[in-house]
Specification:
Elements: H1 6-53, E1 57-59, E2 62-64, H2 69-75, E3 83-88, E4 94-97, E5 114-120, E6 123-134, E7 141-150, H3 152-200, H4 215-266, H5 270-305, E8 309-312, H6 313-327, E9 337-340, E10 347-350, H7 352-368, E11 374-381, E12 384-391, H8 421-431, E13 435-440, E14 446-453, H9 459-482, E15 494-498, H10 502-515, E16 521-525, H11 528-536, E17 545-548, H12 551-559, E18 577-578, E19 582-595, H13 608-617, E20 626-629, H14 635-647, H15 651-660, E21 664-666, H16 669-678, E22 683-688, H17 689-696, E23 702-705, E24 713-719, H18 727-737, H19 740-748, H20 777-793
Parallel strand pairs: 9-11, 15-16, 15-17, 20-21, 20-22
Antiparallel strand pairs: 1-2, 3-4, 3-7, 5-6, 6-7, 8-10, 11-12, 12-14, 13-14, 17-24, 18-19, 19-22, 19-23, 19-24
Length: about 800
């Protein structure tokens, strides 16, 4: 007969229905959230493209564009998207930007902003295209602006909206399933009550099922009650007949037994004695069978109608053995019983007559099958009463140990027996929620083991013990799970590249070696532009970790897909990151240095405006005495000047003042600071604080001043290239450098200056695609032209 669960079918059907509804709702929500995210970001992307379009100019038959910083700053607010652009002249030639962005996009005519999906260097991108007509182009024409961004921020917003919408639906679905589960379980509680009633009954309990039941199962319960009533009547009739027959046969059998014993004493002929002995043995066997049948009927009646009570099993065993001693008042009787009982009480919940009959049958069975002593032991073990009846007889073969529990089944032995003793014992043990086993006794013989639950060992206490054991196992498992794994084999050697002097990086490498003795990093000094070009061109210079004070070049590498995305994000007061690819190790403010001999102490200009006024009013005094680093050569100086132009309204005035003073232009900061120390110049402008402190070394001839009106703080950044051979080891070093201990090692080496107090955090340069603006070819060219014109001519 195939078995199945109605409850499980209902629950599975309900769960499948809720899952299907949830899946359909998820797909619908996902579709709408993707459209909503695209619509929101498309508006920003389109606005940025229009802002770029507004800067289009035609000069001498050439298209010029001045990329607005605000357009890229708006796109960079997500801190996730990479930004690309391509601007085409009316004849289709490239004005500026990436030559491969949106090659499949067909140029259009009209002022409408169009949005298309594309792929740029294996990354999905969203592109906004804007067209601007210019009549200044020969014959007129349309300038095409393509501005694209990757989809990380859109995906994040879409998933966030999806989860915000799905979680309530999932919660409602879960509540609905719980309600369905509760309703189904409640509906099946009456059936479980009937099942529990029948399960907890003894084998002989055929009383009708009592208690209220719902109408849906009342017919089933009535049918069960009718069946049990008929079965009870049949069994009662059979057992009554058996008991009556055994009782009626018992008297003549006893008489036959007595007569055969008398006849044996009086007989003299050998043949007569042999026949009388056989008659006597058969009479004894039939008498024992009648007694066992009466005992079986008595036990059945006791289990069915007798009240159960808490008994001390020691007393029941002692009483039973005493009766057996009286009945077997002969050699091989009482003298063969050996008792070893527990010192403490052994309480069990049982019916006294049935329990006594079970013990009697086990002991008598042992006495029948052995000529030696029978050992009876009682003990408490694991919340159970354990009764052992052991003999030194022939034992029972393993193949017969299960079969001998059947009614009228005897083992392969010559000893007499009815074959009912073990069957009665197993029935009684099962009625008391116990068990019985047959075991081979060491040294020969048989051990009958009966285990009954102790009266005080309730299911609740067993449940508590199970919970305690489960909690202990969980704690042990948690301890094992938290045990640190063996450290993975790190890379034996990795390459660090940066623009800092090699002698200053020695202390940092030593600090790394102290923390990670298994790593052996090497350091190579390179100009920022050279290192970036090597990575972009996948050159021969191996780079596992790049450290540069030029955030614009580092963001450009990451934006073009040359950076490895780390599995962690910086999370401390100093550090920031962009896309988990470019990390800020610290900030290096741009300062002004004054030679003390050229100024009276209170005369030092402490603001950029004061410096410009001084040079404008007294330019002759400082003619050729002001030094600047060539921003067309030095990448750090260019990034500082670009940020200075963005942040300070005094940029052009200050640059013009330098031109009036005929400022000297140096190729490197080292040359500039050397001339300042030698007295060839009196003012050094926009010098990184780390280099100023390293060069001056607490010199009393030079004063380092932080401008009070505006301070450009360029971040010193780190990046792991995508082509790094030992990216995991590089991540370990990067993690260390982002910690206070790592930052302290950079400060101790003079690479990262100790931050002066009082500088607002708002003056720090943030990482993002807005740093790409001044790296645009046209933007850079126009910016350099303006800077040189102002610094050289003073205009």
């Amino acid at each position: 007969m195939m078995r199945y669960s109605i409850q499980r079918r209902i629950l599975v059907s309900g769960a499948a229905l809720l899952t299907m509804i949830g899946l359909l709702m998820f797909l619908a929500v996902r579709f709408y959230t993707q459209n909503a995210a695209d619509e929101a970001f498309d508006r920003v992307l389109g606005a940025a493209a229009l802002t770029i379009a507004d800067t289009i100019e035609i000069e001498n038959g050439e298209v010029l564009v001045d990329l607005p910083h605000s357009a890229f700053a708006i796109l960079g607010t997500s801190r996730l998207n990479r930004v690309f652009y391509r601007i085409l002249a009316p004849d289709g030639s490239l004005v500026t930007g990436s030559p491969i962005l949106g090659l499949e996009v067909v140029g259009g005519e009209g002022l409408e902003t169009r949005f298309v999906d594309s792929v740029y260097r294996e990354e999905p991108v969203r592109i906004a295209t804007v067209s601007r007509f210019t009549s200044e182009w020969p014959g007129g024409g349309w300038v095409q602006i393509l501005l694209g961004e990757t989809r990380e921020a859109r995906s994040e917003l879409s998933w966030r909206l999806t989860l915000n919408a799905v979680w309530p639906v999932a919660g409602v679905s879960l509540c609905a399933f719980v309600l369905i589960l509760f309703a189904v379980r409640s509906a099946f509680l009456p059936l479980r009550a009937v099942e529990r009633d029948l399960t907890e009954r003894g084998a002989a309990d055929l009383a009708p099922i009592a208690g209220p039941v719902p109408r849906e199962v009342s017919s089933l319960v009535s049918a069960l009650n009718d069946f049990m009533e008929r079965l009870d009547a049949t069994l009662s009739t059979m057992r009554a007949f058996t008991a009556d027959a055994a009782h009626q046969l018992r008297t003549p059998l006893m008489a036959m037994r007595a007569q055969s014993e008398v006849a044996l004493d009086e007989a003299t002929a050998p043949k007569a004695i042999d026949r009388l002995r056989r008659i006597h043995l058969n009479a004894v066997s039939a008498s024992n069978l009648a007694n066992q049948l009466l005992a079986d009927a008595t036990t059945f009646h006791s289990l069915r109608s007798g009240a159960r009570e808490t008994l001390d099993l020691r007393g029941v065993i002692a009483e039973t053995t005493t009766r057996l001693n009286l009945e077997h008042d002969q050699p091989g009787g009482a003298s063969r019983l050996s008792l070893e009982l527990a010192r403490d009480a052994v309480p069990v919940h049982a019916e006294p007559i049935a329990l006594r009959e079970m013990i009697r049958n086990l002991i008598e069975n042992a006495l029948v099958h052995t000529d030696g002593a029978v050992d009876i032991r009682l003990m408490r073990r694991n919340g159970q009463a354990l009764l052992l009846v052991e003999d030194r007889g022939q034992g029972i073969a393993d193949a017969d140990k299960r079969a001998v529990f059947g009614r009228f089944v005897r083992g392969r032995t010559e000893a007499s027996g009815s074959g009912l003793g073990l069957a009665i014992a197993r029935s009684v043990a099962a009625s008391f929620a116990g068990r019985i086993r047959l075991l081979d006794r060491p040294g020969g013989g048989l051990t009958v083991e009966v285990a009954l639950p102790l009266a005080h060992d309730t299911p609740a206490s067993r449940g508590r013990a199970s919970l305690i054991a489960l909690a202990w196992l969980a704690a042990l498992a948690g301890t094992a799970a938290n045990t640190p794994d063996a450290a993975a084999d790190p890379a034996s050697q990795l390459s660090l590249v940066g623009s800092m002097p090699t002698e200053r990086m020695g202390a940092v490498l030593a600090a790394i070696g102290a923390v990670y003795p298994d790593l052996h990093p090497t350091y190579t000094q390179a100009l920022p532009s050279q290192a970036v070009a090597q990575i972009a061109a996948r050159g021969e210079l191996p780079v596992d970790l790049l450290i540069l004070p030029t955030p614009d070049l580092m963001v450009m590498l990451a934006n073009e897909g040359f950076a490895h995305q780390s599995a962690f994000t910086a999370a401390n007061a100093w550090a920031g990151h962009w896309r988990s690819e470019v990390f800020t190790l610290g900030y290096d403010p741009a300062v002004i240095l004054y030679r003390n001999a050229a100024f009276r102490q209170p005369e030092f200009p402490r603001r950029r405006a004061d410096l410009a006024t001084l040079l404008e009013d007294d330019g002759g005094r400082f003619r050729r005495r002001v030094g600047l680093v060539n921003i067309g050569i030095d990448a750090v100086a260019y990034a500082t000047a670009a940020q200075d132009a963005l942040r300070s309204g005094l940029y052009l005035r200050t640059a013009s003042a330098f031109g009036l003073a005929e400022a000297r232009i140096y190729e490197t900061v080292s040359d500039l600071l050397q001339d300042l120390q030698d007295g060839r110049i009196d003012i050094a402008y926009n010098v990184p604080l780390s280099q100023a402190r390293a060069a001056m070394n607490h010199s009393r001839t030079v004063t380092i001043l932080m401008p009070e009106d505006d301070v450009v703080q360029l971040p010193i950044t780190a990046l792991i290239p995508r082509t790094a051979r030992h990216a995991e080891a590089a991540e370990r070093i990067l993690r260390f450098l982002l910690t206070p201990a790592g930052r302290a090692s950079l400060e101790a080496a003079g690479i990262l200056p100790v931050q002066p107090a009082g500088i607002p955090a708002t003056q720090r340069v943030s990482l993002g695609p807005e740093l790409l603006v001044y790296l645009d070819r046209l933007k850079r060219s126009r910016f350099l032209d303006g800077w040189f014109q102002a610094v050289v001519t003073g205009r």
